[in-house]
């Protein structure tokens, strides 16, 4: 999807109103309309990049620094006991809006938030194959 028809472009640039927690020249941080838990927020760059692969290095670095600042302030405001910082790339990975964003998900005792996976076991063949491919 191009920037023109992108809902997060419109929100990030203020064309569509949002519950904004923070804004600077590069980013807007908003409350998610379908929160996983109370205070679930999204970091949106103001320019359109579909995913992390496309995000310029400089913005990627700034985004992580901003995530740190936001969860530090939000944790104090919300009184949560932990944070998941989540970023989905590709439909198979759960991405539904194809404008790069970072989820900031506060965690509370017994909140029922369903993040996680069943741990497998790293096989010798997978290890060797991946290490070999990454050398190329
Ligand atoms: P994704 O699944 O792409 O990683 O996350 C998209 C997130 O955007 C979801 O958590 C969804 O609730 C949120 N979302 C989708 N449309 C809107 C919207 O118009 N406004 C806000 N604030 N959040 C949205
Ligand atoms: Zn966009």
Share in helix: 25-40%
Bound molecules: guanosine-5'-monophosphate, zinc ion
Q: Please summarize the sheet with the most strands.
A: 5 strands, antiparallel
Instruction: Name the overall outline.
Output: globular
Span between termini? 32 Å
The total count of helices amounts to 3
Q: What is the number of E strands?
A: 5
TL;DR of this structure?
β1 and β2 form a beta hairpin. The chain has helices at 7-12, 57-78, 124-135; strands spanning 20-23, 27-31, 41-45, 82-86, 102-107. Helices cover 29% and strands 18% of the residues.
Architecture blueprint of SSEs:
Blueprint: H1 7-12, E1 20-23, E2 27-31, E3 41-45, H2 57-78, E4 82-86, E5 102-107, H3 124-135
Antiparallel strand pairs: 1-2, 2-3, 3-5, 4-5
The structure holds guanosine-5'-monophosphate and zinc ion.
Structure description:
The chain contains 3 helices and 5 strands. A 5-stranded antiparallel beta sheet has the order 1-2-3-5-4. The longest helix is centred in the middle third of the chain and has 22 residues, at 57-78. The mean pLDDT is 97. The protein has 136 residues and is α+β, with helices and mostly antiparallel strands. The site of guanosine-5'-monophosphate (5GP) has 13 residues, from helix 1.
Descriptors:
single chain; 136 residues; alpha+beta; five-stranded antiparallel β-sheet; 3 helices; 29% helix; 18% strand; binds guanosine-5'-monophosphate; binds zinc ion
């Amino acid at each position: 999807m191009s920037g023109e028809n992108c809902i997060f472009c419109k929100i990030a640039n203020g064309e569509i109103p949002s519950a904004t927690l923070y804004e600077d020249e590069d980013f807007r941080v908003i409350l998610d309309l379908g929160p996983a838990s109370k205070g679930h927020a999204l970091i949106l760059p103001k320019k359109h990049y579909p995913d992390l692969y496309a995000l310029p290095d400089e913005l990627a670095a700034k985004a992580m620094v901003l995530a740190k600042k936001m969860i530090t302030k939000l944790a104090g405001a919300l009184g949560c006991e932990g944070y998941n910082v989540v970023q989905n790339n590709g439909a198979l990975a759960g991405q539904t809006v194809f404008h790069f964003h970072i989820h900031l998900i506060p965690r509370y005792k017994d909140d029922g938030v369903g993040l996680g996976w069943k741990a497998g076991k790293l096989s010798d063949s997978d290890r060797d194959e991946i290490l070999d491919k990454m050398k190329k």
